[in-house]
Specification:
It is a single chain. This protein is an alpha+beta fold and 333 residues long. The protein folds into 2 domains: 6-193, Fructose-1,6-Bisphosphatase, subunit A, domain 1 (Fructose-1,6-Bisphosphatase, Chain A, domain 1), CATH 3.30.540.10; 204-332, D-Maltodextrin-Binding Protein, domain 2 (3-Layer(aba) Sandwich). Helices cover 30% and strands 22% of the residues. The termini are far apart. The structure holds 1,6-di-O-phosphono-beta-D-fructofuranose (FBP) and magnesium ion (2 copies). 1,6-di-O-phosphono-beta-D-fructofuranose is lined by residues 91, 113, 116-119, 208, 244-246, 262. Residues 4-194 form the Fructose-1-6-bisphosphatase class I N-terminal domain.
């Protein structure tokens, strides 16, 4: 394999960033290593031999498959020692992870979903890892929850790894979105998808229609119009997909456009939504916006939300700009 490796790409970005110390580059390198290790663990599938009897509940009250725990541990052990982080927080831990005192502290905070779409693991469907990097507030070396409570616009980097038919890492540092594919023989990610962009228009949408009876009127209207196809007000046929792995859905949208939503519904009202803002909605929204798409709750831009808790949930509508805007307009109507 020839071409630009992810390490070369990150170093090149560092050279262009004024005043960069290399700390961020090293942190990204550790994330790359963590994703390679997780890819191997996910790939082992049933050979890992840990599904089933060892299930426990996570802070969201969901059944936590053993692989959730394994991947969470991989992410922590790959990053905690680095000295580039002040704090870490994960979907799988109620409170921020306390970096052991024996390790030096750095200036960044990382939030992550080590295994997204984990209900798909035992049916051998794509899953992923999502991460979001923030700066720790000036002088904070032992961050508390409130130090993580920054809106998505403050992210310095967001990315995901997709463990699908190939393993990919998709990354933004605020200068567009680039995709890298893992060459297993070399053990390196190579730049295969430079400057990923989302077309403004689409005729594909993704939503869990089993929740339809609970949806709010604007979402009912949107989906109904899509389903009417050529004969309806949209005047064209739409296609539908639902993988139940947000990483896979966002990746499909980055490749060929589309709309993804996990909207608010009467069942989710109390929780605020299904997806978690800090390590699902925010990083994915940054990636989607950087690729020219849009991301909203239906009522406000997700990246502008001031979060108030680590595991806060939000409604999510993201993807091809014109479709997201149409849904936002329906919410206003
Ligand atoms: O089971 P549902 O309602 O289809 O929900 C699927 C959604 O839940 C998630 O799996 C949540 O992620 P986790 O697997 O990390 O909990 C999203 O990736 C996906 O979009
Ligand atoms: Mg998730
Ligand atoms: Mg998860």
């Amino acid at each position: 394999m020839t071409g630009i490796t992810i390490t070369q790409f990150i170093i090149e970005e560092q050279r262009q960033a004024k005043g960069a110390t290399g700390e961020f580059t090293l942190l990204l390198n550790d994330i790359v290593t963590a994703c390679k290790k997780i890819s191997l663990a996910v790939n082992k599938g049933a050979l890992l031999g840990t599904m089933g009897s060892l299930e426990s509940e996570n802070v969201q009250g969901e059944v936590q498959k053993q692989l959730d725990v394994i991947t969470n541990d991989i992410f922590i052990s790959s990053l905690e020692w680095s000295g580039h982080l002040a704090g870490m927080a994960s979907e799988e831990m109620e409170e921020p992870y306390e970096i052991p005192a024996r390790y030096p502290r750095g200036k960044y905070l990382i939030l992550f979903d080590p295994l997204d779409g984990s209900s798909n693991v035992n049916v051998n469907i794509s899953v992923g890892t999502i991460f979001s990097i923030l700066r720790a507030p000036e002088g904070v070396t032992h961050p508390k929850v409130e130090d993580f409570m920054q809106p998505g616009t403050q992210q310095v980097c967001a990315g995901y790894a997709l463990y699908g038919s190939s393993t990919m890492l998709v990354l933004t540092t605020g200068r567009g979105v680039n995709g890298f594919t893992l060459d297993r023989e070399v053990g390196e990610f190579y730049l295969t998808h430079p400057n990923m962009t989302i077309p403004a228009d689409t005729h594909e949408f993704a939503v869990n229609t089993s929740n339809q009876r609970h949806w709010e009127a604007p979402v009912q209207r949107y989906v109904e119009e899509c389903l009417k196809g050529k004969e309806g007000p949209r005047g064209r046929d739409f296609n539908m997909r639902w993988v139940a792995s947000m990483v896979a859905e966002v990746h499909r949208i980055l490749i060929r456009g589309g709309l993804f939503m996990y909207p608010l519904d009467s069942n989710l009202k109390e929780k605020g939504g299904k997806l978690r803002i800090m390590y699902e909605a925010n990083p994915m929204s940054m990636i989607v916006e950087q690729a020219g798409g849009a991301s909203s709750t239906g009522r406000e831009r997700i990246l502008d939300i001031q979060p108030s808790s680590l595991h806060q949930r939000v409604p999510v509508i993201l993807g091809s700009r014109n479709e997201v805007e149409r849904l936002v307009a329906y919410h206003k109507a």
